[in-house]
Every structure is written in C-alpha cells, then in structure tokens.
Design a protein that fits this description.
This protein has about 425 residues and is an alpha+beta fold. It folds into 3 domains: about 1-70; about 85-330, Cathepsin B, Chain A, CATH 3.90.70.10; about 345-415, no CATH class. The protein is about 30% helix and about 20% strand. The protein contains 10 helices and 18 strands. The strands form 5 sheets. Strands 1, 2, 3, 4, 5, 6, 7, 8 and 9 form a 9-stranded mixed sheet that branches. Strand 10 (about 345) and strand 11 form a beta hairpin. Helix 5 crosses helix 7.
Length: about 425
C-alpha cells in the first residue's frame, strides 16, 4: 500500500512540475510577445507559435547549459519561427555563378597589421539595418562595403540605398530572391554611382526600378577586387584597411538564436548568407571577426556577431574565407545635385518648389497677376482659375475635371485644382 501511494505521489509531482513548466513557458511567451510587439491573426496561429517558441526555448536552454560553450543563445525576435521558416525568409546569398565573374586582383602586400581593428570606432559603419522577409542580404553587404570605403576616402559616411539594388540591379541579381555582391559592385560602377538610403528608402520587397532615383549618383566606386578563396591572411590584410563583403553559412539554428560571444559553430561551408566584416580582435586568447549582419538590432550583439578566426580550416568558420570581395575607390564623388528652389513667375512673383505659375489676370498679352498651381509641370486652364496635372493635361472646366485624352476616351478623370 505504501509503495502504491509513493508511486502516485511521484506521478502527481511530475504532472504538477510539467504543468508549472508549461505555465511558465506560456507566461514567458506572453512577455516575449509584448517585448517584440508580436500579434497573431487567430488563437490557432498563436497556439502554433507558442509550440514553436517552446521548442526554441528548450533548444536555447540546452545549449546555454553546456559548460564549455563559447557563445550563448537567446529567445530573440526570431524565437517564434521554425528553423525552416527562418531559413526561407532571412537569407538570400546566391554564389552559384560566382566562379564566372570573380576576378582575383593582385594580392595585398603583407604588412604588419594592428592586433585589433574596429571600423565602427572610425565612423566607417552605418547603423545596423534590417532586411526583413526579403532575401536581399547581398544588397546590404554591398552597401555596407561601399559606405565604408567612401567614409575612408572622402571622410563622409552616407547610408546607401539597398532598395535601388533590389529594384534595379536585375541583369544577374534577383532582388529579394537572392544575389551576389560582385554583380552589385558591377552595377554601381556601370551606373556611375548609387543613391542614398534617405532618397531611395528600403521597403523590404521587390518594386519597379525608380529611374529618376537611379540617376542620382551620391556615392561612386572605381572598381572592386576579389580576395583569393580560402586565404585568411589576405582577408585579414584587407579588413585592416576597410570593411569587406563576405558570404557565409548563416542557416544554422544556433545562428538564428545567437546572442553573444565568439561563434564557433558547428556550421557548414555551404554559403547562403551575405554579411560584412567590419573588424577583428582577440579575447581570452580566442581570435574573432567582427561581423555586421542585416537582421536588425534585436539579433545578436545589437546586430553584430563575433565569429571565430583562425579556426584551423582553409575555408574558415561557416565558409567566411571562401568568397570575400571589396570595392575600390580613389575618385571623389560627383557634386550633389542643386537644391530645387522656388519657381519664378516673373521678376516680382514666384511659387514654391514643385508648383506651377498660372496667370490669373492678363492685360494686352502681359500677365499682371499669378496663381500657384500645387502640381509640378501642370497645365494652366484657359479660364485662369484652374490647372491640371501633367498626367491629366486636358482641362474640362465645364464639368470641373481634368482628362488624360479627349472626353470620349477618358475613363478616370482627375478633379480640377484651383
């Protein structure tokens, strides 16, 4: 009898412990949702995400309990994604045609390099960006490398447009479906420059190329150089001079949930993600690269990861030595485009930038008074009271509307503007 009661007691304790643990994880999930602003479309979706969160929580707990782990994991912004979902949305490096384009330059002369370099401290690195659910990592690696060399050469740090590369660099690259930095460097050279992020902002999806923005050449490069594959000494020499674009394997689950410390893998050398090396150092006798990622500041060490350097293999940790390249620049950037000013109507009158002067009172062919149409390059109507935008240039003042063509062919007219 006593033996039976003991067994029942053990079972009750086990069930109570399991319920408490589940309740604790559910509470943790609610706090995590609040921290990262996560909401779900239905209770079923939320229950599914909780299950994934629980699995990732167990994985993180198991890894962090290892006594000899050189890095730790955390329930970061990707903790409600399965490993498959994460890989499908956050990578985008396409090295398949790299061998047909790569042109290895003259090896950099081996010089004494500092024991540690961090280009962030020199102001040559912009803030951490977030590619979102677009496989445009290659564009972020490209802009990061160009931003770095531009700062080093000109003294000016300008955040550049990944969206321009995603939208317009389509000869070989495929926007959110993946790309390669060498092709992107070629695109910037051929286009004679690249626009700023402020003028051509990132939206995280494929869009038609904005041809007007494409003409804005805020920063230029003269060329690019590929570092010989699997040559870590050459890679170190170049990183001591500027940030470098590299491909890595970023699809490991430990990479998804990385938090801090020197990442030692294990990981394969199958390249599927593009990042930017912005420095190197040594801590407690362990050499590492300082790597800028494009998954936002809520991942890793505020968007960065320390990856093991000198790991004893030619390809390096996660293949980081295999496909490295960097832009070259000696020429100055073109002068900035002139700032648009007011639209001059006559010697005494003007309209604001982006407006059109329309005469409101004319005497013997001379305009004595002007109105400002709030559309650029607008058409002034004959009644002197209204105007039509360039997209609908025909005035129909009787019906108070603007037409694209003659009224019998027009479908969606625009309303007249006073």
């Amino acid at each position: 009898m006593g033996s039976w009661l003991w067994a029942v007691s053990i079972l009750v304790l086990a069930v109570h412990s399991s319920v408490s643990e589940a309740s604790s994880t559910a509470d943790l999930f609610e706090a995590w949702c609040e921290q990262y602003g996560k909401t779900y479309s239905s209770e079923e979706e939320k229950a599914l995400r909780l299950k994934v969160f629980e699995e990732n929580h167990a994985f993180v707990t198991q890894h962090n309990s290892m006594a000899n782990a050189s890095y730790t994991l955390a329930l970061n912004a990707f903790a409600d994604l399965t490993h498959h979902e994460f890989k499908a949305s956050r990578l985008g490096f396409s090295p398949g045609r790299a061998q047909s384009i790569r042109s290895v330059g003259t090896p950099v002369q081996e010089l004494h390099v500092p024991p540690a370099v961090d280009w962030r401290k020199s102001g040559a690195v912009t803030g951490v960006k977030d590619q979102g659910n677009c496989g445009g990592c290659w564009s972020f690696s490209t802009t990061g490398a160009i931003e770095g060399i531009n700062k080093i050469v000109t003294g000016s740090l300008v955040s550049l447009s990944e969206q321009e590369l995603v939208d317009c660099d389509r000869s070989y690259n495929s926007g959110c479906a993946g790309g390669l930095m060498d092709y992107a460097f070629q695109f910037v050279i051929k286009n004679q420059g690249i626009d700023s992020e402020a003028d051509y902002p990132y939206v995280g999806m494929d869009k038609p190329c904005n041809k007007e923005k494409l003409k804005k050449h805020i920063v230029t490069i003269d060329g690019y150089t590929d570092i010989p594959p699997n040559d870590e000494k050459q890679l170190l020499q170049v990183v001591a001079k500027q940030p470098v674009s590299v491909g890595i394997c970023g699809s490991e689950k430990t990479f998804q949930l990385y938090s801090k410390g020197v990442y030692t893998g294990p990981c394969s050398s199958t390249l599927d993600h593009a990042v930017l090396i912005v420095g190197y150092g040594t801590e407690d006798g362990v050499d590492f690269w300082i790597v800028k990622n494009s998954w936002g500041e809520h991942w890793g060490m505020h968007g960065y990861i320390q990856m093991l350097r000198n790991n004893g293999t030619a390809e390096g940790i996660c293949g980081i030595n295999m496909l490295a390249s960097y832009p070259t620049k000696t020429s100055p950037n073109p002068p900035p485009p002139p700032t648009p000013g007011p639209t001059k109507c006559d010697f005494f009158s003007s309209c604001s930038e982006g407006e059109t002067c329309c005469c409101s009172w004319r005497f013997i062919g001379v305009c004595l008074s002007w109105n400002c149409c709030t559309a650029k390059s607008a058409v002034c109507c004959d009644n002197n009271n209204y105007c039509c935008p360039a997209s609908h240039p025909i005035c129909d003042t009787k019906r108070n509307r603007c037409l694209k063509v003659c009224i019998k062919f027009s479908s969606v007219p625009s309303v007249l503007s006073p």
